[in-house]
UniProtKB/TrEMBL annotation:
Coiled coil: none annotated. Keywords: DNA-binding. SMART domains: HTH_MERR. InterPro entries: DNA-bd_dom_put_sf, MerR-type_HTH_dom, MerR_fam. The keyword DNA-binding applies. It comes from the Bacteria. Residues 1-69 form the HTH merR-type domain. It comes from Acrocarpospora macrocephala. Pfam families: MerR_1. One of its GO terms (molecular function) is DNA-binding transcription factor activity. This is MerR family transcriptional regulator.
Amino acid sequence: MRIGELAALVGISTRAVRHYHHLGLLPEPVRLANGYRDYSLRDAVTLARIRRLAELGLSLDEIHDVLADDQGKELREVLAGLDADLARQQDMIAARRARLAALLTEPDLTPESAVSPELAAVLRDLTASGSSFAALDRKLLALMDTVATPADRDQVLDLVRPLIEPDALARSHELYARLDDLADADPADPRVAALAADLVALIPADMATAMIAHSDAGWQGWMFDEATPAQAEVFRLAVITLTERTQ
């Protein structure tokens, strides 16, 4: 089949097909004497699986690894793998619809109503102090919960839960208040370094590891954009200290 027929069969554009060729995810098929690509049923199955895996939230590297495992398999096995991908996608859709159904029964909806009940409980405790900086943290966590896969959402909850233990929660509220006090301060204010050190002491080891591993994933940019210069400097110093500890 031609590239247009393949794209129509799978439900994507011919441009996307060429993009997957360029990324090395979809092997180049044989070409006819006239130079046109000639795609097979196996190519269509591979392309459909790329689309489904992408919709499931896998990165391009993860998709590449999955497809590499498919090499040498019989077409029936590949089709079975695609069927399993679709089943997972159905489960995700069903879970999302269940969350929507629960939301639609609430009399008063707010933008943060869409977070999972588990995270909502954590946010209630963690940001109950009324701190303006706590409100920023609440937005970031709500965003992470909204875009995360179920597995990632569970991981976020596991990382944050230690902060709502009684002793840690009291210290969290204290640090939020101190961050608020720095709203109009200069980044060179001596309180900045002291607060960064206390923040490092509060952060659980697993959260510290995750913060460093995902330091280029955008959360720091969001923090620096939303926070005042002195508040942003607190987190910059904290990340430097955490990074040095892991080396």
